[in-house]
Write a structure and sequence with these properties.
Layout: H1 7-18, H2 22-43, E1 45-48, E2 52-59, E3 62-65, E4 72-75, E5 78-85, H3 87-93
Antiparallel strand pairs: 1-2, 2-5, 3-4
Length: 105
């Protein structure tokens, strides 16, 4: 499987495009990540315009199965973080194809 941009490559690419020092761009990304974690924890969501949003969600307690033994086990309720991709990003990455028109003979 092909690997995407590493953090270093992303920082270098953004620094070149914006003509800024790499340290400044790295600091921006670190600050944005810290802010995303803090805001999601505090308010339950953090939006990155044009990309998507981090959303804090509660999962209820449920019954699961041990895959090796098949034994029923209790899974505790917990808080999880989900990422919802923005519609604009979805459409740009994987546009919805229009249904093909049927030919009339």
């Amino acid at each position: 499987m092909a690997k995407g941009l590493t953090k270093t490559a992303l920082i270098r690419s953004m620094a070149e495009q914006m003509e800024l020092p790499t340290k400044q761009v790295a600091q921006f990304f670190d600050t944005m990540a810290q802010t995303a974690v803090k805001e999601t924890k505090k308010n339950g969501e953090f939006t990155i315009p044009g990309i998507g949003k981090l959303v804090k969600a509660e999962r209820k307690a449920r019954t699961g199965r041990n895959p090796q033994t098949g034994e029923a086990i209790k899974i505790k309720a917990k808080t999880v973080v989900k990422f919802r991709v923005a519609k604009a990003a979805k459409d740009a990455i994987a546009p919805v194809k229009a249904p093909a028109a049927k030919k009339v003979a």
